[in-house]
Amino acid sequence: ELTETALADDVSRAKAAINELRALGIAVALDDFGTGYSALSYIQKYSFSQLKIDRAFIDEMDKHNDGFLLVEGIVRMAHSLRLEVAAEGVETVAQRDALIALGCDYLQGYLISRPVPLCELRPLLRLEKMEHAA
Questions:
Q1: DSSP 30-94
Q2: What is the mean pLDDT of residues 95-107?
């Protein structure tokens, strides 16, 4: 996950590093999408595999229709560019359900899980894998 701030310092170096990571099969996400003033230009400059919608937009989804429509537009745009979409800050069932209906690929937030130490994460990942196999 890279933020716009991390990319702004040295564009050519960042672009080369992202391309190397992608060549190794490592997914690279543009984090906090939508909060910076040039986020759209970063999609063109770098070969990201994922956009992470900033929590500020997720917070607005269930407050008014424009908030929902903006998130819907981001998801559609990302998918049309063959990017996966992750939403951060998912804290309500309504947000989860709306994001799933919009086709959001990944959800992150306290509704899904609070941060956990690695020793607690491994059993959760095993459980998730078993649930998908069933």
A1: EEEETSSTTHHHHHHHS--SEEEE-HHHHHHHTT-HHHHHHHHHHHHHHHHTT-EEEEE---SHH
A2: 96
